[in-house]
Automatic annotation (TrEMBL):
GO terms for biological process: methylation. The keyword Transferase applies. This is O-methyltransferase. It is an enzyme of class 2 (transferase). InterPro entries: SAM-dependent_MTases_sf, SAM_O-MeTrfase. One of its GO terms (molecular function) is methyltransferase activity. The keyword S-adenosyl-L-methionine applies. It comes from the Bacteria. Its EC number is 2.1.1.-. Keywords: Methyltransferase, S-adenosyl-L-methionine, Signal, Transferase. SUPFAM superfamilies: S-adenosyl-L-methionine-dependent methyltransferases (SSF53335).
Length: 190
């Protein structure tokens, strides 16, 4: 796939995303939310991405597709072996595996060990740990980067604390994309 033209990649990925649009049933983000992540990466030329919560890989496909355009790379973490297996198959099917480093295990531990630096994060695993993930990544997060978190318009445990934390952080400017029905918090590092 390394020799594919970007046009060939784009056509193949778009077809895969369209055909599978209604087929994601493992807590995956909806199509629209994947597109928001993709556009943030492409528009800002981000190249070193981290995803917490791969599941079966819907957002992973969107992020990896964006990185195929910017020349970047994604590290993605999942604790559930079967979901990760499906995600790996999906990325293979769509021809984007070369952009993704899949990590299996507890993100509580793995995030602390990652070297970084990152310029884009998508946080979509256990909401009660959102604040801790943010604290662990912040020293490895580049100025000008965007740290995104899913489900922030939903009343799930941990979300209020997360929004209070990022909204009062002096180094970040946080907005919420409300075109996503779940809500995506986007924290820009100044
Ligand atoms: C909302 S789903 C992710 C959906 C995915 N981003 C997508 O759009 O396709 C959250 C995932 O996080 C995983 N998860 C939860 N706690 C975790 C942890 N501590 N470490 C790694 N993964 C975790 C769950 O197994 C689940 O698959």
């Amino acid at each position: 796939q390394g020799t594919d033209s970007q046009k060939a990649v784009d056509e193949r990925v778009q077809k895969f995303l369209d055909e599978n649009r209604e087929k994601w049933h493992n807590l995956n983000v909806p199509y629209e939310d994947g597109k928001i992540l993709h556009d943030l990466i492409v528009d800002n030329g981000y190249q070193s991405a981290l995803e917490i919560g791969t599941s079966t890989g819907h957002s992973t496909v969107w992020i990896a597709w964006a990185l195929s355009k910017t020349g970047g790379k994604l590290t993605t973490i999942e604790i559930d072996k079967n979901r990760q297996k499906e995600a790996i198959e999906n990325l293979k099917k769509v021809g984007l595996s070369e952009y993704v480093d899949f990590r299996l295990g507890d993100a509580h531990k793995i995030v602390k060990e990652l070297e970084g630096p990152f310029d884009f994060v998508f946080s979509d695993a256990d909401k009660d740990w959102y604040v801790q993930y943010f604290k662990d990544i912040n020293p490895k997060f580049k100025k000008g980067g965007r740290f995104t978190a899913h489900n922030v318009l939903q009343s799930m445990s941990g979300i209020r604390e997360y929004l209070d934390f990022v909204n009062s952080h002096p180094d970040y400017e946080t907005t919420i994309d409300k075109t996503s029905s779940s809500g995506i918090a986007i924290s820009y590092k100044k």
